[in-house]
Write a structure and sequence with these properties.
283 residues; alpha+beta; 52% helix; 6 strands; Alpha-Beta Plaits
């Protein structure tokens, strides 16, 4: 399996701490488990500091920075993702983007990321839509979109009474069969890893749980949370339940390493690309 990029790994490691921080030595030691040289980790930290994706306190401890907060909060919500969904009455939420500026590429990347994180798809040029089945309705979705990077000026509104042809086209913007197959495949991978990890050396168990846990979290966080009858909610819920079990296994694999370095409050990592995108596609 290829080694992760140093910046991605640093963000991923820091995202495992809901409120805490890590010293450089812990980040360097953890990077070593994935084949990263200590100097590479230190250079990555310097660049992330400059981009304000991480912060350093007076004790020299590092934590996620303010620019990563919106995405970090979204990633951390995977455990309660089913609580964000309500019964669907057939309506839609729309966002008009035709008048938004295109010259600022970073703003466009942030906007695109926000739509992806909340399951929006393009219905026609300049109009992104999703089913209106999230708790809080339009107001809550508008707030989340802006927090994740959507331009404040973008109109976000309810759409109802689409004509039958347009409604059918909107429902086809997603791929339910692929989503359902993805749920089943990830559940199988988690189950296989649960059986294998007790047989591995501790370092191998740590890296496997870290990588696979992050991959599964990314899948859930990027799930569009489609309502029934588009996608059976029970299949998504089964994946979330499987990941909660795997989350406990992953934390147990890393517990001794974290205790030895004085770090507490560990949780399973977010996916590296989720956090790397917090600055609008930092490279």
């Amino acid at each position: 399996m290829p080694r992760p990029a140093a910046k991605s790994l640093v963000l991923d490691l820091l995202s495992t701490l809901p409120r805490g921080a890590m010293p450089v030595r812990t980040l360097v030691d953890a990077g070593g488990l994935f084949g990263l040289a200590g100097n590479n980790v230190r250079v990555a930290l310097a660049r992330l500091l400059a981009a304000r994706l991480v912060e350093r306190d007076e004790r020299g401890l590092y934590r996620l920075g303010a620019r990563a907060e919106g995405v970090s909060r979204q990633v951390a919500s995977w455990r309660t993702v089913e609580e964000r969904v309500r019964a669907w009455e057939g309506g839609w939420i729309g966002v008009h983007t035709a008048a938004l500026p295109r010259a600022d590429r970073r703003a466009v990347r942030r906007r695109t990321r926000a739509f992806r994180l909340l399951g929006f798809r393009g219905l026609v040029a300049g109009l992104e839509v999703r089913p209106d089945n999230l708790v809080g309705g339009v107001a809550a979705v508008r707030e989340q979109l802006v927090r994740l990077g959507l331009d404040v000026a973008a109109p976000v509104f309810a759409l109802g009474e689409l004509d039958p042809a347009t409604d059918a086209r909107a429902r086809r913007l997603w791929h339910p069969l692929a989503l359902r197959a993805g749920y089943r495949k990830m559940r199988d991978l988690l189950a296989e890893s649960e059986k294998r990890i007790p047989t591995l050396a501790i370092e191998a168990a740590m890296t496997e749980s870290f990588r696979l846990g992050g991959q599964a979290i990314r899948q859930i966080v990027l799930d569009p949370l489609l309502p029934e009858p588009i996608v059976p909610a029970a299949e998504r819920a089964a994946l979330v339940a499987a990941l909660r079990r795997y989350d406990r296994l992953g934390r147990s694999c890393w517990a001794e390493f974290m205790r030895a370095t004085g770090v507490t409050g560990l949780r399973t990592p977010a996916d590296v690309r989720m956090m790397e995108s917090a600055a609008g596609g930092l490279t």
